[in-house]
Amino acid sequence: DADVTQTPRNRITKTGKRIMLECSQTKGHDRMYWYRQDPGLGLRLIYYSFDVKDINKGEISDGYSVSRQAQAKFSLSLESAIPNQTALYFCATSEGLKGETQYFGPGTRLLVL
Amino acid sequence: AQSVTQLDSQVPVFEEAPVELRCNYSSSVSVYLFWYVQYPNQGLQLLLKYLSGSTLVKGINGFEAEFNKSQTSFHLRKPSVHISDTAEYFCAVSIIQGAQKLVFGQGTRLTINP
Fold this sequence. Notes:
heterodimer, A: mainly beta, seven-stranded mixed sheet, 11 strands, globular, B: six-stranded mixed sheet
């Protein structure tokens, strides 16, 4: 089984709808991250969480919110989806060490019509 | 703030040829450096990283990278590529003192032609 899973893998929604992307991990890591990937822009950090009680905004948090329900679960919500939120979304985890590796999920491809 | 520039958005090479993917970074403080690879329809996985010590770092699948502090570069190389190396490659940095957040470059799509 994969260490970092994301659901759904693909989602089509309409402008104005609220949607939630979910991430679960079995690695036992405290730190979790949400990124979006756009062609030619690489990955940009949306939100990150260093433990269940710690939530931080990343580079591009406007229009997004997150919930850390447990150490293993970190959800990303789009309160009112808009077309420029069409992107590939990745969840990642890490242990919290210096120079640490981040472990990525398989991604959720989101299309907002 | 840190930034990463990958100088080539696409690199086509023939199988068994050498390849170099270029990465330059900007930072006013010391950084850790990473290369991640994204195979088609998959998430990213770590290829190699530079934390300290020897400036030549070896990674998985025969890749290596050299940290050049004076040129603020961290170029990725492989002496002989295979079809299976077709993927997108991302250079990233994180500052040594701080929250360990990664800042990614724009990505380089490596295409291997037979």
